[in-house]
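[step 3/7] fold_predict: job queued, chain A
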Amino acid sequence: MTFSSLSKTYQNAGGRARALNECSLEVERGTFTVIVGRSGCGKTTLLKCIAGLETPDSGTIDFGGDVRIGFMFQDPRLLPWFTIEENLRLAFSNGPLTQRKTNREEQNKLIHETLALAGLEGWEKAYPGNLSGGMAQRASLARCLCRRAQLLLLDEPLSALDAFTRSRLRKELCALWENLGLGVILVTHDIDEAVYVGDTVYLMEEGSLGGRFSIDSKKLPRPRNYHSAVFQEYCRRIEEAIRYG
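[step 4/7] structure written:
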């Protein structure tokens, strides 16, 4: 998948603000790509352009064929008056990310399977208000997986969780990625998170993509140890590149 020279500007009270500036990146199918940068640097806008939720002013997006996309936001965005099962069924409604039709029987099968994958089997009839923050994000992930997404776009989905839950869900997300063969693009401002989950880490600053780091899986195998010297060295290099780059 190739995303070339994506640019995007918005109109605000002070005039036109550039959110993306000639952003280009290549993502191999089945890999875990991370874009790390400060809040407000354009990470979310880039994901939305890739997903088709925003239209770039210029540039090209080439998936190399049909790709089913799932998008997770910073908050779960579950409708509180619907059960978890009903929220997941919304994944099959018409919309920019819905790319195939399914009958009711197939929907029920996919909902059951993905809730089990997300660790929410038995919670079909619960309402979002009955879930913890971590469980709500699992439900949001299950909604993405219901459409058999081949590419997951993750917009800081763990940033609002407590440290313990965030660490546990990182491990679960990596396990799902490996087991299902998904392609993932995650945006985050957390350097530890970027190194823990990523195959490739891009740096983003003021709408532009800068440095690129490849995480060597032989030197730093999964599941990754936050306290290892190799892990800390990657974090140090990325932090220095952001600070001085």
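[step 5/7] annotate
Residues 84 and 139 are 7 Å apart (CA to CA).
The chain has two domains: 2-67+150-244, 83-147.
exit 0
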